[in-house]
Design goal:
This protein is mainly alpha-helical. The chain is 81% helix and 0% strand.
Amino acid sequence: MEDKKIVKRTSAWWVIKITYLLTAMDLTCMFMQFGIVPYLATNLGLDAIGFGYLQTFFGILQLLGGPIFGRFADQFGTRAALTLSYLAGSLCFLLLSVSISVPLLFLSRVPGIFIHGLPGAQMVVTDLTTPAKRADALGKLGLCFGIGVIIGSSLGGILTTKFGVAVPCYVAVAGYLACTLMALLCIPSQTKPQSKRNEAQQGTSQSSSVFSLQEIIRLLTLPGVMDVFLIKVLSVFPTGVFLIMLSIISIDFFGLEVAHAGYLMSYSGILQMVVQGLIIGRLTSRYTEQSLLMLSVIVSCGVGIAMVLMTNVFHYCLIVPPMVFSFSVVGVITDIILTKSVPVSDTGAMLGISASVTPLIRTFGPTMGGFLYRQFGVSSFGYLQLIVNVSLAFYLLKKKIPQKEEKTQ
């Protein structure tokens, strides 16, 4: 019996390792579009406003697709969900390669409604880990994210500059098809343990449709879920809005050249890899989720004060480590609490809803960030960070975050 348990643990860890590899490949392909889409938009005559509409359109599609993708994973398995995401990614780049007009460019964004490789990987990791090990395993996906940001954005830009749009698009299509094949061969059709699978089949859901708005509302109204979800949204929103405006702030406020602004983004990406890959797992083995949430909020308050006083790029470089720390910790910890707060049959849908926070910021962030920067300057982002997180700190002091499972060593 003990031998069977060891085999199961070994098999689960092997699947998780494959998932890390798939995620790194997926995000590398995904971030290649950062070099392709602006190049295409400029060549097709889109101005800054038109490009903003294009980005907003993609953000809205991802925002709508996150919960749908999560429910699809719960009903058809994570292998099917990852396969759908990778095939949608390959279709996205295939359409990009033939985008010879603005309508075709917008059409190439439509498959983005199903491109959710990172939430899909989070679902695999959540299903195959115990609550005590989950934070460390989820945090290591941050390493994959960093690899994707650094390699993907650089590779997309280099290939587009040297060979035009078609070559990087075909490289991304090939990468996504390779991910599809690996997922079909290496990821089990169902990653939930058998006992949990039986619970899922008994049906906590009232509707079998993946498009059911009622089911999404049901999950959000479960005890404690809406509280944690709002904490996640509010805590990451100020930082997310600032990061959206960072490229403009780097050039306009810090006086950096475009290349140096790119180095600043890479610096943030590397720090995120360190925090999520090496630090979060150690913290969660020693402290409760409630304590880590409070710590991240307090650190964010300090970041807000520092941003108000910031006057140059050196100051920003000092601010980035605590900013990345609080941003990463609250993202991972809230995901863990949310997956504990819903039935096991609905963890995929919950992670899909949680993943919609990023496109939510990407959709509304540019408008809000542009207004704040034009009207009040860079310090306004610091005041926003401070006000939001001081409010959250008082809220957390009064509210005990529910935890269905106690931490184990």
